[in-house]
Amino acid sequence: MKPNSLLLACSCTHYVDHAEFQHTVIQAARQSNRKIQLIDIGIQGFDHPIESTEDTESYLKYYAYYV
User: Fold this and answer.
1) Gap between the Cα atoms of 7 and 26, Å rounded
2) CA 19/CA 21 separation, integer angstroms
3) What is the pTM of this model?
């Protein structure tokens, strides 16, 4: 990605937890020699209730980064 871009990374599986997902994005940025800054985090809406982000029902997630 070009500098001064926005990166939206989204996942719709509970097999990848939030920490692993974010780690993967950060590693990819480092390998691409890009510095990223986390600007927003999102999870599924109220129509997909969860008890916590560690819950297996917590499968919709996104991270927005400034590159």
Assistant:
1) 11
2) 5
3) 0.84
